[in-house]
Design brief:
Blueprint: E1 9-13, E2 17-22, H1 26-32, E3 37-40, E4 43-52, H2 61-81, E5 89-96, H3 107-121, E6 128-133, E7 142-151
Helix pairs in contact: 2-3
């Protein structure tokens, strides 16, 4: 758990806990008005982080897995900034864009690659999870958006 202030994050105290904004998302938060991470008592809620292929061509399977790893590392950094960790995650929600032409995997292969990478970060017992298909994600080139909820008692 983190104890010293981290200059890579803005921490905004709230009546029920705090909001955490990574420096890299400050402009996005100002434009779209959301909290990337919010601690409410013993719970931590994370907005979705998006695996993106900014190029119009198809991303390889390995590049897709690497992009997913970056998303899960981002989730981990937000959790730590909220005094929690990956082992505190109780729920994952994943929103997939299938058939976009931006990843060289079909639906089954994309789901399998996501499960493979997820298992690198979440060993048993796994968090509850839901995976949904969506037509599009923000920003352009979004392939998978992943949000999380953690239960991390402060006492």
């Amino acid at each position: 758990m983190r104890t010293a202030p981290n200059p890579d994050f803005d921490e905004i105290p709230t009546r029920t806990g705090k909001v955490v904004v990574p420096a890299a998302l400050r402009a996005d938060v100002e434009q779209f008005h959301y909290a990337p991470a919010r601690r409410v008592g013993d719970f931590v809620y994370l907005s979705g982080l998006v695996a993106i292929n900014p190029e119009p061509g198809a991303m390889s399977a390995e590049a897709f897995r690497d992009t997913l790893r970056e998303v899960f590392r981002g989730i981990e950094r937000l959790l730590v900034a909220c005094d929690a960790g990956l082992d505190d995650v109780i729920e994952l929600q994943m929103f997939h864009v299938f058939g976009s032409g931006r990843v060289a995997l079909n639906k089954a292969e994309q789901l399998a690659a996501t499960a493979q990478v997820r298992d690198e970060f979440f060993p048993p017992p796994y968090p509850v999870a839901v995976e949904l298909a969506v037509a599009d994600l923000n920003p352009d080139g979004g392939l998978v958006e992943i949000k999380a909820v953690a239960f991390a008692p402060l006492v």
